[in-house]
């Protein structure tokens, strides 16, 4: 992230125009209204943006459906049987079933996915309406630093919006393989999966980052034959090495094919499916291919550079820690900035931008405080400094790991795969970061987030009460393992 130098708020604004109604945009709008500004949000899809309509909400809803399948896998270890004769059936009733056989109706799953996304978008629109935010549906672009021109969705004449400050929160779009445009039928981006009416016979997932791993795991759990194509040595190359290694082992144990060090060069339709060409000459065939190779910021062609906004070579908007761009009165938030591609970060950037431009107290965003989660099974949650970052910086640290299999609550629930890991300073004992690999790790990471944000020590964490038995008990136990007796 490049720091933009200037002092204090750009101006005391009363008219705010926000380009993009995703988390960065609508959260900013709510803060600006609370601080007394007149606010207009320009959104091309619908309130919530791609995060609600085609990305975060739909994908996590699909993954929630897939979780039921992995839950039944654990249930078998607890003595629960699905689709088999009951052990205690009376004579003549040996054919009775403990539970009916399980199948997946993907059309019904996707219908629910999109209905929830639409409902969430409607809820956001209703909230903004109640708060007095004006919403304009259409394509917006800057015409100077504090002037926005909107082409309404219905084709009416352009609308010109004058502003004291503008927030750009236009998000990003899926990157495609060169020469292999997505067609929404066989070659798919993650925004197009929800049109499928039946499970793919064989799904090829290109890209082993967060998005690729999440969808590969979800479709594998739904019973699909999945091949994951990874250009790196392992899945999730940017994540904790122990967590990524564990997840890849889980993937393989569930029958997924993982092709490491295999770069995809292109994809093409065949008579009844797709063929993915690898850089080494191999060809992988399947019924469908999901391309999950990153995203491109949606910043081109909307007048940013002409308005004095500097873009990085990647196309991301250059911002400082309070979301200012290089153009006075223009702020930016979300995936278009490249800070961290998380809805929570977009929302925080948007809130900080409005607090700054409207003269409220501001705490600049601190990336190490950001908790992130990968919604695989098991989930991987992280916060603070990673082990790789600590090693790269030559920082002093101590670490310990506790397998989930040692937790009594995990044993009761049939959970085997996972661990809790903490990093701390060897002398000061301050918690520097942590990793949780577990079902619902997204819920368990919060106490570690508090520890990192407030610079708590391992003893602070260890001395807090936890429920027995509970999964969170492992966090306190790991902290106790890092305790150093007083000399």
Write structural notes for this entry.
This protein is of the alpha/beta class. The chain folds into three domains: about 15-55 and about 110-175 and about 295-370, FAD/NAD(P)-binding domain (3-Layer(bba) Sandwich); about 185-295, FAD/NAD(P)-binding domain, CATH 3.50.50.60; about 380-480, 2-Layer Sandwich (Enolase-like, domain 1). Helix content is about 30%, strand content about 20%. It is built from 13 helices and 22 strands. The strands form five sheets. It has a seven-stranded mixed sheet. Helix 1 runs parallel beside helix 7 and helix 3 (about 55-75) crosses helix 5 (about 210-220). The chain is globular and about 65 Å long. The model is unreliable at about 1-10 and about 90-100 (pLDDT under 50).
SSE blueprint and pairings:
Layout: E1 15-19, H1 23-34, E2 38-43, H2 49-53, H3 56-77, H4 106-131, E3 134-142, E4 147-152, E5 159-162, E6 165-168, E7 172-174, E8 187-188, E9 202-206, H5 210-221, E10 225-229, H6 241-253, E11 257-259, E12 264-269, E13 274-278, E14 283-286, E15 288-291, E16 295-297, E17 330-332, H7 343-357, E18 372-374, E19 379-384, H8 387-392, E20 398-403, H9 408-413, E21 419-424, E22 431-438, H10 441-444, H11 446-453, H12 458-462, H13 473-481
Parallel strand pairs: 1-2, 1-6, 2-3, 6-17, 8-15, 9-10, 9-15, 10-11
Antiparallel strand pairs: 3-4, 4-5, 7-16, 12-13, 13-14, 18-19, 19-22, 20-21, 21-22
Helix pairs in contact: 1-7, 3-4, 3-5
